[in-house]
From TrEMBL:
<dbReference type="GO" id="GO:0006313">
    <property type="term" value="P:DNA transposition"/>
</dbReference>
<protein>
    <recommendedName>
        <fullName>Transposase IS200-like domain-containing protein</fullName>
    </recommendedName>
</protein>
<feature type="domain" description="Transposase IS200-like">
    <location>
        <begin position="11"/>
        <end position="153"/>
    </location>
</feature>
<dbReference type="InterPro" id="IPR002686">
    <property type="entry name" value="Transposase_17"/>
</dbReference>
<dbReference type="GO" id="GO:0004803">
    <property type="term" value="F:transposase activity"/>
</dbReference>
<dbReference type="InterPro" id="IPR036515">
    <property type="entry name" value="Transposase_17_sf"/>
</dbReference>
<dbReference type="Pfam" id="PF01797">
    <property type="entry name" value="Y1_Tnp"/>
</dbReference>
<dbReference type="GO" id="GO:0003677">
    <property type="term" value="F:DNA binding"/>
</dbReference>
C-alpha cells in the first residue's frame, strides 16, 4: 500500500513540504549540538560553494572522521524556503530547480546526520522512519498557510507561547521577520505574498502535528 503523503512524481520549479521523524517516534535531536549539526548540513549543502569550507561533522559535530567524504554543493538544484526542527521530527519547505534536487538534498542530509548521530550516541540502525514524506504545494494560499503551520510547530512544546516562537532557535521564523538573514534561506518566496507575516502567523489557529502521520 502506498505511503500516505508521499509525492510520486517530482517536478522542476515546484515547491514541496518535506518532513520526516525518528524511527519509532524516537527523538532525533537530543541537545543543542544535534540541532546545530542538522542546520549546518543544510547550510553546507545550500550555501554558495566555497573552497576550504570545514565539514559539519568535524566542526559542529565535534567528531573525528578519517578522510571525510566531501559534501557536494546543491545550491543550484534546490532552495530552502522555511524550516522547523522539533525533538523527534523536522519540516522543510523546499523549491527544487532540478528534477531531483530535493531528493539529493534530503538523502544526503539524512545519511550524513545519521552517521553523526549514531557515532555520537554509539548506536546502530536506522534513525529516520523510512523515506521522507513530500507533498507538493500548488497555490500561493497553500504556500502561505503551510509556512505558518511550520512556524507554529514549537507551540506544541511544553511552556511554549506564541511570543516564544520568535526566540525558538531551530526555526526559520526569525528570518521571516527580518531579524536574521542567510544566503541559504529564501523566505522572500512567501514574504512577497503578505506585508504582515507576523500578524498572519499570530492570528492563525495552531494545528496538531499528528494529523500528518
Amino acid at each position: 500500500m502506498p505511503a500516505k503523503n508521499v509525492e510520486k512524481i517530482y517536478k522542476v520549479n515546484a515547491v514541496y513540504h518535506a518532513y520526516n521523524r525518528g524511527v519509532e517516534k524516537r527523538k532525533i535531536f537530543l541537545d543543542d549540538q544535534d540541532y546545530r549539526v542538522f542546520l549546518h548540513l543544510l547550510k553546507y549543502y545550500l550555501s554558495a560553494a566555497g573552497k576550504g569550507t570545514p565539514h559539519p561533522i568535524t566542526t559542529t559535530g565535534k567528531l573525528n572522521l578519517i578522510r571525510p567524504r566531501p559534501l557536494k554543493n546543491l545550491n543550484r538544484e534546490v532552495e530552502l524556503i522555511a524550516y522547523c526542527l522539533m525533538p523527534n521530527h523536522y519540516h522543510l519547505l523546499l523549491k527544487q530547480t532540478t528534477i531531483d534536487g530535493m531528493t539529493k538534498l534530503l538523502r544526503r542530509v539524512a545519511t550524513t546526520y545519521s552517521l553523526y548521530f549514531n557515532r555520537r550516541y554509539k548506536r546502530v540502525g536506522y534513525l529516520f522512519q523510512g523515506r521522507y514524506k513530500a507533498v507538493r504545494i500548488e497555490d500561493q494560499a497553500g504556500l502561505l498557510q503551510l509556512s505558518c503551520y511550520i512556524h507554529l510547530n514549537p507551540k506544541g512544546l511544553e511552556q511554549m507561547t506564541r511570543c516564544d516562537l520568535v526566540t525558538y532557535p531551530y526555526s526559520s521564523y526569525p528570518y521571516f521577520l527580518r531579524l536574521k538573514t542567510a544566503d541559504w534561506l529564501h523566505p522572500e518566496e512567501i514574504l512577497t505574498l503578505t506585508s504582515h507575516y507576523k500578524d498572519f502567523v499570530e492570528q492563525s489557529p495552531s494545528e496538531q502535528e499528528d494529523s500528518l502521520w
